[in-house]
Amino acid sequence: MQTIQLEHFQRAAEEIGKHGDNDTLPFNIDNRFIAEKPTQLAKIAFEYFERLNKSGKKNAANQLNSLQIFNERLLTPTGAYGFRTSTKIHPFWNIYLNGLAIAIADANEPYRNSRAHSYRYSKDTVEFFDRSKSWRAYKEATLNEPLLDSPNTVVIQTDISSFYEHIYHHRVENCVDDLFGENDTVGTQIDRILNQLSSGRSFGLPVGGQCARVLAELLMTSIDSLLSQNGIIWHRYVDDFTLVADSQAKAYEALSILSNVLADYGLSLNRSKTTLLSAKHYKDFVTAQLFASDDQASKLKEIDLYFDPYTDDPRQDYEDLQQTVKEIDLQTLLAAETSKSQPDAYLVSQISRTLKLQTPMTALQLCRTLLSVQNLNAFRASWPTIMRGVISLRSDSNFSSIHATLDVCLDEVISHSKHLLLPESNCLHFLRAIRFKKTETRSVFVASDVFNKTKFETVKRACIDCWRHWNDRPSFISVRNAWSTQGVEVQRMLWLASYKFGDDGLHFRNQVNNATDNYWALGVESKAGTSFGKLFKQWAEKCDS
Question: pLDDT per residue over 104-116, tens digit each?
């Protein structure tokens, strides 16, 4: 049976420190803290796990039920008009959950079918998941099915309705118990933590982090197995299924079996996204999706903009990528998207990812188009990637010649597109983009429109981070004076920010120092070891930015 080890939490902390805790939200200062203290944080997590595991299932459940695990459900746009919630979790509990998830993924991977192409755990690479197992690889695998050569073949494309939101915790707990044994507490711990993150509901996974992906794939491993046992030819990527049958009758039968299997797990198919195609139509459709034509838009879509510093010659990789991008007329491509009623979100995102590969003036021209009042609303589906691209320019001294103009463009967003800043994740990306320089427009926006109105600690923290970067002493003092009424996560951010404000910061820390042990206690502390709060304070004292 699989066991939980210190190295699982160590790898979890290192992965969060490098890539962030939630891929729908911007990188934040806690991720830097984790990146610089992975070993110490992993040790706290492992020691707590060992105490819980030795106490037995009932005691482990009771202890976790007695804790208050900080989390917030933040609104995140998806597509042009849709929304979903992303879960922001306390950094310690993110490490803890991901550490358990790594052990679960490691134990489950040998049982997974090769036809499941999503989130394949990689033990031997820097990345958490095998990058070669992608949505593209999934689609290419379907094209290689021999049955597609038959003229009578029917292909079903379908997906699961509201997949993550409907996953039942007790089913996940049973799957974990199958891997670790009935006497282990891992399944119980997962169930109790998920229950807290779901506000007491017994279903739903926290969107945005790696643990949710692992647990979803664990559940789907059982469903995949049942499909194979029934003789169905299938391929899957997360909640997307492609079924291949040799006739209309067999296709209907396969769809019925899949629906029944999912129903046993509380899941159902999305009827509006279920289509049946002939083999020829399916091959033509997927080939057009995957393989580039001669036009520049297709070439841009094919480019993998991931830059791997661990290759034998990363500099050459970067230069090759930069040269490829230079050969594409991005301004013409972006101008073409502005004339469409529904721009290609992936193409706009790819253009945003290339900004740092451009000359400063070309990057500025692209940003002006992306952020203009005429276009930004149409490009809203690409908001996070646009903001990340702008942030990459604004934080790079090689682009200092355009920083002032970029700042003007960002201030204009507050004037003409404030409605796009209402979803919390959009606001967080924007706050990160404007933290480099204080202007009157930004100052009013951050204080009046955001900090004083939001109920979310994660958003308040981002506001304080702006004041920290701006050396905005009056704003810091105003919130500092209400320290005891602020949430714990806001308190931690104020402590970090205080180091920017000299004597005011020092007096503040002296005043509240003794209270932090109680306020910041997680309930996982041991008398012998250090605590999360003390470790954070040690790090904050030496944090230089």
Answer: 999 999 999 999 9
Residue 434 near residue 391 (C-beta atoms within 8 A): no
The answer to whether residues 391 and 432 touch, using CB atoms and an 8 Å cutoff, is yes
Q: What is the pTM of this model?
A: 0.92
Q: How would residue 329 be classed by pLDDT, with cut points 50, 70 and 90?
A: confident
DSSP calls for 303-322: ------TTSS-HHHHHHHHH
Give the SS3 label for residue 403: helix
Give the other-Cβ count within 10 Å of 400's Cβ.
Answer: 11
Paired residues of 73 in beta bridges: 87
How many C-beta atoms lie closer than 10 Å to residue 393's C-beta?
Answer: 22
**For position 310, what pLDDT does the model report?**
37
Give the CA diameter of the chain. 79
- The answer to whether the Cα torsion of 98, 102, 103, 108 is positive or negative is positive
88: β partners: 72
Say how far apart CA 102 and CA 123 lie, in whole Å.
9
Alpha-carbon torsion 318, 294, 141, 117, what sign?
A: positive
CB burial readout 361-378, b (16+ within 10 A) else e: ebbbbbbbbbbbeebbeb
User: Which residue did the predictor score with more confidence, 454 or 297?
Assistant: 454
Which candidate, 418, 431, 484, 419, places its Cα nearest to that of 458?
Answer: 431
Amino acid at 172: V
pLDDT number for residue 314: 46
Q: Tell me which residue of 500, 383, 490, 499 sits closest to 432, measured CA to CA.
A: 383
Residue recorded with tokens 């891992």: 186
Token pair recorded at residue 442: 């930004």
Collapsing DSSP to helix, strand or coil, 139 comes out as helix
- Let me know if 144 is exposed, middle or buried by CB neighbors in 10 A (0-12, 13-18, 19+): exposed
Note the pLDDT of residue 327: 65
Query: Residue 189: which of 82, 278, 317, 69 has the closest Cα?
Result: 69
Task: Report d(CA 85, CA 63) in Å as an integer.
Answer: 28
CB 63 within 8 A of CB 196: no
Yes or no: say if 136 and 229 are a contact pair by the CB < 8 Å rule.
no
Between strands 82-89 and 71-78, the pairing is antiparallel
Cα–Cα distance measured from residue 214 to residue 198, given in angstroms and rounded to the nearest whole number: 17
Each residue of 36-95: pLDDT tens digit?
Answer: 999 999 999 999 999 999 999 999 999 999 999 999 999 998 877 888 899 999 999 999
Task: To the nearest 10°, report the CA torsion of 441, 444, 445, 451.
Answer: 160
Average pLDDT, the chain: 91
CB 62 within 8 A of CB 110: no
Average pLDDT score over residue span 204-214: 93
> pLDDT category, 157, cuts 50, 70, 90?
very high
- 476-486 confidence digits (pLDDT tens): 999 999 999 99
Helix 91-108 to helix 29-36 angle, to the nearest 10 degrees?
60
